[in-house]
Every structure is written in C-alpha cells, then in structure tokens.
TrEMBL record:
InterPro entries for the chain: F-box-like_dom_sf, F-box_dom
Highest taxon of the lineage: Eukaryota
Official protein name in the record: F-box domain-containing protein
SUPFAM superfamilies attached to this UniProt entry: F-box domain
Source species of the chain: Paralvinella palmiformis
Length: 78
C-alpha cells in the first residue's frame, strides 16, 4: 500500500471504484448506505492513520483486528 504522491481525492476515488466492484460481486445493492468507519477501505484508513502520532497509533491499534493490522503497517512507522 504505497500512497506517496497520491492526493486524498485520488485514494478515495480508487477505493470507491474497488468498493463498487465488490458490491456488484457480492450482490449488494449499490444504493445501500454503509457510512461506517468499519466499511471504509483499508487504503483510506491507512491514509487517515498516517496523520496520527506513534503514541496515538498504539492506542488505535487496540480498537479491533482491522485497525491493529493497519496501524502496524510499516509505512506508518518510519
């Protein structure tokens, strides 16, 4: 997941396209509203987490398995 050189708009556009593909494959209706942070693509969460300090990343990693996996991404720990 290399996000360098991409704007948040580009990341969101890419993630939206992939979620639309998953929705059509899974049979989910494209008009269903899923506005939960848990439904956000990993790429978007990684971009959001990149603004956190290391101490905050440690706290956020205890939220759930998905957040722990993203918070431990090597690009956040440079």
């Amino acid at each position: 997941m290399d996000l360098r050189g991409q704007s948040l708009f580009e990341v969101a556009k890419d993630a939206h396209g992939k979620s639309q593909q998953r929705a059509s494959v899974s049979g989910q209706l494209p008009g269903i509203d899923t506005k939960s942070i848990n439904h956000m693509p990993d790429k978007i969460l990684l971009h959001v987490f990149s603004y956190l300090k290391h101490k905050e990343l440690c706290h956020i990693a205890s939220g759930c398995k998905k957040w722990r996996m993203i918070a431990n991404d090597s690009c956040l720990w440079f």
